[in-house]
Design brief:
The chain is α/β, with parallel strands linked by helices and 158 residues long. The protein has one domain (3-154): Endonuclease Chain A (Endonuclease, Chain A). Helices cover 40% and strands 20% of the residues. It has helices at 3-9, 25-36, 54-62, 106-110, 122-142, 146-154; strands at 14-19, 40-46, 66-70, 84-88, 96-100, 116-119. It has a 6-stranded mixed β-sheet with strand order 3-2-1-4-5-6, with helices on both faces. Helix 1 packs parallel to helix 2 (25-36). GO terms for molecular function: RNA endonuclease activity producing 5'-phosphomonoesters, hydrolytic mechanism.
């Protein structure tokens, strides 16, 4: 069983997710199930890598899960949101971080040589939470500009 799926079954209060790409359907299902149990979920993804999973992303959003996508400021320049981490229940002693080299894709778990780290260290959890907050606030503000808003509306993500 994939470790990210195990993490998603342990949620109590909150989960902040920052990945370039999530393409595993079971992860989308687990996120939705956790949300339906009252877990606050926020997801950051890279817009340019979302095309194959727009239906799943729209479904999460329609259910009330907060999803933001990073859109490169300069289409001619290769700029992506390349984070790969989840912060579980950062506000209590059971909080932990899942991070590593992998995206949440089948090939990451089945074909690639990847690393995964889980840590309960409160300082690391807080640092990752703070990084997520900074990224969330930046992307949220950036997506209010006319170009990004138009791109998101065209993709039915706004």
């Amino acid at each position: 069983m994939n470790p990210s799926y195990i993490l998603l079954t342990l949620l109590k209060k909150s989960l902040d997710v920052a990945f370039m790409l999530i393409s595993i359907n079971k992860v989308y299902t687990a996120l939705l199930n956790a949300h339906r149990k009252g877990v606050k979920i926020r997801i950051l993804l890279n817009f340019d890598h979302c095309n194959s999973k727009l239906t799943e992303i729209r479904h999460l959003m329609s259910e009330g899960i907060a999803v933001l996508t990073y859109i490169s400021m300069n289409p001619g320049m290769s700029s992506i949101m390349h984070h790969k981490f989840m912060v579980k229940d950062y506000s209590d002693s059971d909080g932990f971080v899942f991070t590593g080299s992998l995206n949440l894709t089948k090939s990451a778990f089945l074909n690639n040589y990847e690393d995964i780290t889980f840590t309960f260290n409160e300082y690391v959890v807080k640092a990752f939470h703070n990084n997520f907050e900074e990224c969330w606030n930046y992307i949220q503000a950036d997506n209010e500009n006319l170009i990004n808003k138009t791109v998101l509306l065209d993709a039915n993500l706004a």
